[in-house]
Design brief:
The complex is a heterodimer of chains A (269) and B (226). By secondary structure, chain A is of the alpha/beta class. Chain A contains 13 helices and eight strands. Helix content of chain B is 15%, strand content 33%. In chain B, the strands form three sheets. A six-stranded mixed sheet of chain B has the order 5-7-9-11-14-15, with no helix packed on it. In chain B, β3, α4 and β4 form a beta-alpha-beta unit. The chains are: A alpha/beta (269), B alpha/beta (226).
């Protein structure tokens, strides 16, 4: 059985693409056959974060318009053979996507035996985001601990349960909260919403907390999903998140301020 | 084949209809207002059963077409200038309301028949930002949270058992006895029969407490629920 999962948030810049990249890489590392699709036509980024930008020949729009077949457009990940990336088109605009076209590509991916199909949504709640979420069975709601992000996520949750294929068939889209850029120190000072505050408003199950970490930026710039960096807290947090998604019982970490010893103060990061 | 004892069965039924009074017969003005209404409360307009009333002569077929295009179902007109064209259009003609009947000399004993039951709608899912729930002619019960940016509206009372953080409007069609009840009151805006207040002006209620809102002498009262 294939599962279609959308990574969405409403608000931009909260970590959707970072999450899509690490989530799909994490699933692939556990042997799953995974495809990840960039729906952000015109502003493609996923290929950069996955480090395959120099191997993009055909893209999602080419496949939709019959200019290339799906196999030609799928880019094999540099580390995992069972992970494939379908890049967005940088030169077209969002009108190039149609629901029928998206459905056909998703059906073809299912027929190819992909177990997990991750749809990386663009920001906003317009057409692009609608296309990305419409066929989803499950959703990762990426949220920053900050009021505007939480409100946008709330809006998106409403759309997920109203404007998707499953919703139209009376099936609930399964929701997962991914709280990114979490900084326990700032939460303690009252500068950021806490996990509890966010959950109180959104009322959906928490899949993972990703701590704010400089590694996320350096990983993005080097084209390696942060999950590959097992030493970084963000990498470990994404690995935990994938384990939880696959049904393992992992306690949430990185919620409390770490008491730093002298050694850590001097040499820690 | 055995025949049924009778072809028609007659049953009484209370029907709530909206009275539409035409103040300005200009079709453009009508069209503009319909469009506005459709934007403000699309759910209320859709399928609304209406009785038309006018003091001024007007092009009834055209008005009917406009109303129907907006989703309103005109059922009848009240007797007057519209009566003749209504008969042609196949609408019923109802007797005019007699104002003096509304204030009878001796108050009649309360009728023994039960009042028509108003429909209550129970919503168990959270009402998210950007969503609007409207209950026509009845109460609304929300078991979960109403998020900031969401609207819960009822012609009757609004009850919210999760936190109420969005807007709650009770008595949307003017029932000033309607109330808003919330177990955790953090509303952005509350209104009863069109009298409203916003979060910034709400001081009497403690944020997050069980609260009720009602109208007293035309003013909103926000007080804790015991």
């Amino acid at each position: 059985m294939s599962k279609i999962i959308v990574t969405t948030s409403g608000k931009g810049g909260v970590g959707k693409t970072t999450t899509s990249a690490s989530f799909s890489t994490g699933l692939a590392a556990r042997g799953k056959k995974v495809a990840v699709i960039d729906f952000d036509v015109g502003l493609r980024n996923l290929d950069l974060i996955m480090g395959c930008e120099r191997r993009v020949v055909f893209d999602f729009v080419n496949v939709l318009q019959g200019e290339a077949n799906l196999r030609q457009a799928l880019i094999r990940d540099k580390t995992y053979d069972n992970l494939h990336i379908l890049a967005a088109s940088q030169t077209r605009d969002k009108d190039a996507l149609t629901l029928e076209g998206v459905e056909k590509v998703l059906n073809d991916l299912v027929a190819e035996g992909f177990e997990y199909i991750i749809c990386d949504s663009p920001a906003g709640i317009e057409k692009g985001a609608h296309h990305a979420m419409y066929f989803a069975d499950e959703a990762l709601i990426v949220t920053n601990p900050e009021v505007s992000s939480v409100r946008d996520s709330d809006r998106v949750l409403g759309l997920l349960q109203a404007k998707t294929r499953n919703a139209e068939r009376g099936i609930k889209v399964k929701e997962h909260l991914v709280l990114t850029r979490y900084n326990p120190e700032r939460v303690e000072k009252g500068e950021m919403l806490s996990v509890k505050d966010v959950q109180d408003i959104l009322a959906i199950p928490l899949l993972g907390i990703i701590p704010e970490s400089p590694t996320v930026l350096t990983s993005s710039n080097s084209g390696t999903p942060v999950i590959a960096d097992a030493k970084s807290e963000a990498g470990q947090a994404y690995a935990d998140l994938v384990a939880r998604f696959l049904g393992e019982d992992k306690p949430h970490r990185f919620m409390q301020v770490e008491k730093k010893g002298l050694f850590n103060k001097l040499f820690g990061n | 084949m055995a025949r049924l004892p009778s072809a028609l069965e007659l049953k009484g039924r209370m029907l709530s209809a909206t009275r539409i009074r035409v103040l300005d017969a200009d079709p453009d003005a009508v069209a503009q207002q319909l469009q506005e209404l459709n934007r403000q409360m699309p759910q209320a307009i859709k399928g609304m059963v209406a009785v038309l009333e006018s003091e001024v002569a007007l092009d009834l077929p055209r008005l009917l077409a406009q109303l129907r295009a907006a989703g309103i179902q005109p059922l009848a007109v009240t007797d007057g200038v519209l009566a003749a064209s209504a008969v042609l259009a196949g609408l019923a003609v109802l007797p005019k309301d007699n104002r003096s009947r509304a204030e009878p000399l001796a108050p009649p004993a309360p009728a023994p028949v039960a009042a028509p039951r108003r429909a209550t709608r129970v919503v168990s899912e959270p009402v998210r930002s950007g969503q609007q729930v409207y209950v026509e002619d009845g109460d609304l019960v929300v078991l979960s949270a109403v998020s900031p940016g969401a609207e819960v509206i009822a012609d009757g009372c609004v009850h919210v058992y999760g936190p109420l953080r969005g807007r709650a409007l009770a008595g949307a069609r003017g029932d000033d006895s309607a109330r808003v009840f919330a177990r955790r009151f953090e509303a952005e805006l509350v209104a009863i029969a069109g009298v409203y207040t916003v979060a910034e002006q709400i001081k009497s209620a403690k944020k997050g407490e069980a609260t009720q809102v009602f109208l007293q002498h035309g003013k909103l009262v926000i007080e804790p629920l015991i």
